[in-house]
Design brief:
Elements (H helix, E strand, L loop, with lengths): L3 H18 L1 H4 L3 E2 L10 E2 L11 E6 L8 E6 L5 E4 L11 E10 L10 E5 L6 E3 L10 E7 L6 E4 L4 H5 L3 E6 L9 E12 L1 H21 L1
Antiparallel strand pairs: 1-12, 2-5, 3-4, 4-12, 5-11, 6-9, 6-12, 7-8, 7-11, 8-10
Helix pairs in contact: 1-4
């Protein structure tokens, strides 16, 4: 049986091993579009995001940041809303920030940036984050906090905190509202950044279990 310093060295080594083994969980979901698919992203199906919006959603195998990327072609003049796969939905309280790379194709008619939105479980409440309009013709990384300060209530009555606890993530790739012809924009490396406290709790919980086992012997 381990005693003293040897035991605690083993505890530390076990915690490190478990953290590394669960890194994919602790890191949050990631869509990098490098596997030849859209990785579950699709045009929004909720009625509020289909009319008068519309367009085409395509996978580009090269030209991303790097590799493949998701490209929206706005054919409606109102933009295209795209909906995240299940890994990005649900309880977002475990995450602090939403981060992604975006590329806006050069066009003098561009008037809006891409904008993330959180749809509440009532399918009626929507909170949006506009952010800056980045320069066109290059990839730029954007990050928005999930604390609600920079989000605006678009429709519905649910609070931001209630929506965040059970949300559907969408992106409004509607970089123009007034001009035609078609405008295009791309997204890559979409991810949710985890709450540091989640890692601390994981480590502390593991250590507590191991210490209880030692003292129970």
């Amino acid at each position: 049986m381990f005693t003293g310093r040897t035991f605690y060295v083993c505890v530390f080594a076990t915690i490190i091993t478990l953290v590394l083994a669960n890194a994919h969980v602790l890191a949050g979901p990631l869509s990098d579009f490098d596997d030849g698919t859209l990785q579950g992203w699709q045009p929004a199906t909720t009625a509020a995001f289909t009319i008068p919006f519309g367009g085409l959603l395509d996978l580009q195998l090269a030209g991303g940041n790097p590799g493949g990327f998701m490209m929206a072609t706005d054919t409606s003049g109102g933009g295209l809303w795209v909906q995240a796969p299940p890994a990005f939905n649900g309880n977002l309280n475990l995450y602090t920030d939403l981060q992604w790379d975006e590329y806006i194709f050069p066009n003098s008619g561009i008037t809006k940036p891409t904008r993330p939105a959180l749809l509440g479980k009532d399918d009626a409440t929507v909170w949006v984050n506009m952010g800056p309009l980045n320069p066109t013709g290059a990839w730029h990384t954007r990050s928005v906090s999930l604390d609600g300060a920079d989000w605006t209530l678009l429709t519905g009555t649910m609070s931001f905190e209630d929506v965040r606890a059970d949300a559907t993530l969408l992106f409004g790739m509607d970089v123009s509202v007034t001009t035609m012809p078609t405008l295009e924009c791309g997204l890559d490396n979409i991810t949710l950044l985890p709450e540091p406290a989640s890692l601390v709790l994981f480590v502390c919980g593991t250590a507590t279990v191991l210490l209880r086992r030692k003292h129970a012997r």
